[in-house]
Amino acid sequence: SLKAREVEQRIIKLASLGLSHSDICVLTPYSKQCSLIRYLLRKIKMSDVNVLMTQGVQGREYRALIVSTVRTCRSETPDIDHESSFINDPKLFNMAITRAKDWLIVVGDPYTLCTVGPNRSCWEKLIKYCINCNSSNFHIVTIL
What we know:
single chain; alpha/beta; 5 strands; about 20% strand
């Protein structure tokens, strides 16, 4: 999947900046995406990077958090529990994005995140805030 490969490339970049693997976490609400990313990371000997589902990150912080939403208008992933996902639940969204100390990278389609689902206003506010602040430590990666 292009999305999983993008996450892999972002992890490689963060590691090249000197972050240890344990300082990096990938968060996704999709079990299949977790498995795929873990597989890709094992192949490049980075299996100690944390790849977690939404609830697995609660109470932890990481220098870099990659949020893999894997959500576009053209592809809905069938294994998501829409009610208990940070994509759609404002409390879980807040918990998820506040786990990053230094870098927050969102991989997904910003248009879809801001226009589809009950949590669209939270995504829109986050993206606008980061654009307005000219944040160099926040990245939205558009994958269609």
